[in-house]
Specification:
Layout (H helix, E strand, L loop, with lengths): L5 H25 L3 H5 L3 H9 L2 H22 L4 H23 L7 H26 L5
């Protein structure tokens, strides 16, 4: 068994916190009351009104898969590759809808930076889990 560095534990703990923030945001969106939705800007109201179930499911797959993957990384399990792969698939499906299908929100530059960061982190986590498997840090 390889001895892992403190950097491994710190980075993967931060990744887990990042994914827990995503879980929180998902739960806030899913349990948004009708009264709260009425307080949103009209374009956001239309976005939530027309949001297909598969996009919400993709969001859940992204955040819960990412959280499970980071927990698996902390447990040094190669299952992290499967979970983080599912998470990346969820991110890609959700971004596909938001950028190419939906027409309720006008995605300006100030709205695009966060999806780009999310995609970069998802890809990075999956690639590092492959690296950890190759170098026998996870089993």
């Amino acid at each position: 068994m390889n001895k892992t560095s403190k950097k491994y534990w710190i980075i993967n703990s931060l990744a887990l916190i990042w994914n827990f923030i995503g879980v929180y945001q998902y739960l806030v969106q899913v349990y948004l009351s009708d009264l709260d939705k009425m307080r949103l800007a009209p374009e956001l109201q239309n976005y939530y009104l027309h949001l297909p179930a598969w996009v919400t499911g993709s969001y859940a797959m992204a955040v819960f898969g990412g959280s499970a993957g980071c927990i698996a990384l902390l447990l040094r399990s190669s299952w992290s590759i499967n979970f983080l792969g599912c998470s990346l698939l969820g991110v890609l499906l959700q971004h596909y809808y938001n950028f190419f299908i939906q027409s309720d929100l006008n995605l300006s530059l100030d709205l695009i930076w966060m999806p780009v960061i999310i995609l970069m982190i998802s890809i990075s986590l999956l690639c590092t889990s492959f690296y950890y498997k190759k170098t026998a840090i996870i089993f």
